[in-house]
């Protein structure tokens, strides 16, 4: 018989599966649906090892679900708009569409060579006009509903990519894509009103997301419950937002953000030069630089004073860049005694520090306090409010009292800002808006969608959208009056594309609606897998999109994903992120050429806990490779006579069913990395049985059959070969996952260690139901134990059932 040669069998099965449409999803009302989805890739050129790592384990799990009787929906597509296509166009002079579509063809072939059960009949790319037409349709619907609007203001600008960015795309002050330091520009741009859903987005319902994803989204949304308090100023009333209205009587100055509208009016002539210089300098700093807590606080006095709404005291008004114009009202009441930033500022500029919250039993903070007191306590030095409880826990009560007094109004603010979606780049969805001198901004009517991207444009980034340069394209007619009008020349953020793509798979070629609601029984996605880098951007946006679609009556779902899991990252052997410049990249195609697909799949699933990831160990792949040779030998080669470990039918059945039970649990919990070890040990146990008389029993046949089925999700090609060679009907991949025989899966004996004076001296097999006397008798009968106990006086005997026996003796 032949030795294991994966190359011959793997491509044969891939072709057969394709020909038979084995993975084409078909409706089957007798089964429960299971929608498994892996985040679709960007068609960058080819699949790297990270794509394999991200896709192989979810594929194995989808296959396992199918064997368990679910009707599994497992589609894939391409997230195809974005900068790399344009950059390639600029660099190599190829058309972005050509570049993208040829990458898509190549990468689809790579996915097929990975042996996945993806249903390719559902494939689409977000750059297909057939797809982006619906981005445009959503945009015009959102516009009609007030969910899409245009406004001017300060926006994030990436000087390298020459486009604006959403807040979510700015990571520590840098462009999340290219790393350039982000600047601020005053521009008029389109926004989607995600803030309408801020509160609802904090409620994850029964969507099961990793704790850190919930936390990141919750912090990003940043809900703060507090109050608005209005102070009088020479430039009119000024309202501040505070989360600590209980500290109102401790406010000793006000601070405005440098960009605050009242700065000019409040600056006195004497202070003007200094304030203007300060404001100009602040404009050159990034938000991160401004907010760095470690950084020295800076600021200037405006020369004006505000009137405290309760005490009537005159409080100096300062300008400082630790106050952000984009949050709250862009101004604060500073309470140095109880806020760390205000404390540092007051110390630096010699401003008054007034204690108003005192922990019980304390003498008070005195004049030489070294830090703000931010804890709970009782209100002091606050006149009529003295004695009320203060601190975060009592904000509601205090706010109520202040509201009665008419000096505060309860208010909740969010950190979340509306989603800026205009981009000044070419390779994206054109914004379907037309500007008419007479009728203003008008949505392009549905029957004129899609507004196609013009071809043959000059893309070199200039800071203006390349679409602007194509006069033929920009000139159009106003949908209202038919008069001459201009198209919007920006394109949409590509995160728009991925916000609803999971719905499009239901009817990818539907040209009458974004997706067919007759298919909505497939929703929501039951298991969504992908990288943690999308914790905020893509996941938050798609949760918002689903809620907006629900409110438009397109779906009844409120959450797109029932269960989310993030894989870790495969690093180079040096423990660093793989990158061409570091030269530590592992190419999956090379590995497949050398070892075959099944070996690479098995190795990637066993290399690390899937959610953690870890470094690539080049020698580690030998384990799965040798294992598959042994699997092959087990089924297809004659066993050379040799010493075999004695085995019984019961032991073999125990090995089979306890492994089956373990592996099922591993798939269920997504503990993929232990599956290989279990299957490896079982293979050896069956090889032992093959060399022993047990080979003649039904238990042996059962073992071969169950192992074959267990191989199917994990190493689908070799499993199919075995199935067919053993005369199985149809495909192994449409078989049912075997049932665990619970009685066979549990052993009625346990092996436990025996200690003498705390040292392990031997191990005994005893019945699980053994009494203490029986257990101790078995222990004493063990020769290695007897050597240390005979002739000695027993002081104590301890039997912890199922775990350990300890005998304490003395001479
Ligand atoms: C008085 C006060 C006293 C405050 C105190 C805190 C502690 P979060 O929780 O992040 O919402 N604040 C308000 N607007 C601001 C802005 N635009 N830039 C910088 N800081 C701003 O924080 C709300 C608190 O941050 C507010 O409550 C305000 O300071 C400050 F013992 O008001 B507080």
Automatic annotation (TrEMBL):
Q: Which reaction does it catalyse?
A: tRNA(Leu) + L-leucine + ATP = L-leucyl-tRNA(Leu) + AMP + diphosphate
- GO CC aspect terms: cytosol
Binding of ATP, residues = 580
Q: What is its EC number?
A: 6.1.1.4
Q: What is the lineage of its organism?
A: Bacteria, Thermotogati, Deinococcota, Deinococci, Deinococcales
Q: What does the entry give for GO biological process?
A: leucyl-tRNA aminoacylation
Gene3D superfamilies in the record: 3.10.20.590, HUPs, Isoleucyl-tRNA Synthetase, Domain 1, Valyl/Leucyl/Isoleucyl-tRNA synthetase, editing domain
* Domain Methionyl/Valyl/Leucyl/Isoleucyl-tRNA synthetase anticodon-binding intervals: 653-772
**Record InterPro entries:** aa-tRNA-synth_Ia (IPR002300), Leu-tRNA-ligase (IPR002302), Leu_tRNA-synth_edit (IPR025709), M/V/L/I-tRNA-synth_anticd-bd (IPR013155), Rossmann-like_a/b/a_fold (IPR014729), tRNAsynth_Ia_anticodon-bd (IPR009080), Val/Leu/Ile-tRNA-synth_edit (IPR009008)
Protein's recorded name: Leucine--tRNA ligase
Q: Which residues form a coiled coil?
A: none
Q: Where in the cell is it found?
A: Cytoplasm
Q: Could you say which protein family the record assigns here? A: Belongs to the class-I aminoacyl-tRNA synthetase family.
